[in-house]
Model the fold of this input.
Amino acid sequence: MTTEEVRTNVEKALEEIRPFLQSDGGDISLISIDNDTSVKVKLEGACVGCSVNQMTLKSGVEMTIKKYVPQIEEVINVS
Done:
């Protein structure tokens, strides 16, 4: 998978997740993809202060991104 394909598929994954986050007053932005294995995202809005945002990040965001791009090893939230 090329770097461009990785980026496109990560964006598709985020589009799948975004409506769930937005329904709770939050959102997510893609910051960067490093070495085609590490994704940096920024949780926004209500997600920033949410006590379960790490769970959302790991079980929702990371799982969905890995479904689209299996080579991704980690998803990191940057603030």
